[in-house]
Fold:
Amino acid sequence: MTRPSQAIINLSAVNRNFDKLSALAGNSKRIAVVKADAYGNGAVAIANTIKDRVDMFAVAFLDEAIALRENALSADTSSEDALNSHASTKPILILQGAHEAADYAAGAAHNLIWVMHSEWQLAAYRAHIQQHSCQARAWFKFDTGMHRLGFSPSYLDTLLLDYPELINEHSVMMTHLACADEPNQGHAVAQIDRFLEILQQHNFPVCIANSAGNIRFQQARQDYVRLGIALYGSSPFNLADQSIQLDPVMSLNSKIIALRSIPKGDCVGYGATWRAPQDSVIATVPIGYADGYPRHAPTGTPAWCNGQLVPLVGRVSMDMLTFDVTALLKHSSAKAAGEFEPPQIGHAIQLWGDKLPINQVAEHIGTIGYELMTRISKRVPRLYIKD
Ligand SMILES: *Cc1c(COP(=O)(O)O)cnc(C)c1O
Structure:
């Protein structure tokens, strides 16, 4: 490998995070959400790591499910027994449901569960199962306040009356919380209450919680929980919230490929947006926005180097970043402690990971750990480790 930038993915950390979430989940069945290539960590590797420990997987849309089946979770549908007992055949829930009627036929061999959130899906899926004389495997999504996908709660009775062909022992009623990760819990509680109230006179299995719901709201831990971001070691809550300690999964590492001293007053990078307030030493690191490091990361966004945090300075380029490492040299000349090693070409830089929490970096950039992780591009090799 000629380029030192890589994402180290710690699969042992995924298992430890799963343990912590599981300890909270009680009797709920566990769904591992592996959409968006498992939030950038690699869906195949993540699915293979936890397939024996979860009840099912979830992805956003059909293509993601098929890719997973072809590479990790083969759907051996030769017998009902194989479906139930083999971890590799665990069902995959399609969170957005079908995008077009042809999806139902295209997914037929893959042991999928379809979310229904629109009336056209109900009609198209009914037509599909009638045509192929197969059993419906549908979850029904209700919009209890997120206002993104789902039927109005008042539609439940009509649904049951008009689509009896879709209702069977596989039916699950689901909703999604808009504010489970917000400090103010009122919105989430209102959504949960509203949903449980309309389901009161029925006996359907229920699925409400995402990671934040599973960690924080006992009432959201129903028959199933959908575990995403927390598996990957980024807390869904804001930095100050210590409700759960998770292990970082992705460490985005690189190395210093150039170092230079510049005089006070000189500028760094495209647009000359950062001017050195003193004589400075600038370290250049070969990772940039083409790798998914956000271009809008401002001066001051931290990275880790030789046991210290160093600030990004100047604009993010397509393939490179520049950091002000002057403070490291000062510390080392002051001989503060052995750990202040002067930076040299070849020294490791970590953009986020086991030495620098991803959420801390995200806060500087004005985003969340979810976006940083999912946007690391295919150009960055993933290296899988177990510790
Ligand atoms: C992505 C997603 C999840 C997982 O959410 P996390 O916050 O990552 O745990 C759960 N449910 C739905 C509907 C989703 O789209």
